Amino acid sequence: MHANKGDQLVRHGRVVGEHDKVAEIVEVMGERGSPPYRVRFEDGHEAVCSPGPDSEIRHPEGRS
């Protein structure tokens, strides 16, 4: 998994009816874009996380 500041971390719902959680990556704490990441969720809550297999990184348009 590789991310940059400004990318989105999307954690997919784990059970039927659970929505995806989307957070903006505000700090990359690992080496060369690897986890852990400091993220800010839509409600303003911040956390440090190491995403699992139920997560994906979305890069802004025009950047991969």
How does this structure look, described?
This protein has 64 residues and is mainly β. The chain is built from no helices and 5 strands. Strand 2 (21-28) and strand 3 form a beta hairpin. It is globular. Strands 4-3-2-1-5 form a 5-stranded antiparallel sheet, with no helix packed on it.
Strand content: 35-45%
Oligomer: single chain
Which residues form runs of ≥5 with pLDDT under 50?
Answer: none
Order of helices and strands: EEEEE
Structural Rg: 11 Å
Measured distance between first and last alpha carbons: 12 Å
Mean pLDDT: 91
Strands side by side in the biggest sheet: 4-3-2-1-5
Question: Major β-sheet, in short?
Answer: 5 strands, antiparallel
Please give the count of helices. Answer: 0
Q: What spatial form do the alpha-carbon principal axes imply?
A: globular
Strand count: 5
Sheet/helix structural class: mainly beta
Q: Could you estimate the helical fraction of the residues in percent?
A: under 10%
Q: What tags apply to this protein structure?
A:
about 0% helix; single chain; five-stranded antiparallel sheet; mainly beta; about 60 residues
Describe the structure concisely for a colleague:
The protein is mostly beta strands and 64 residues long. It contains no helices and five strands.
List the helices and strands and how they pair.
Blueprint: E1 8-11, E2 21-28, E3 37-41, E4 46-49, E5 55-58
Antiparallel strand pairs: 1-2, 1-5, 2-3, 3-4
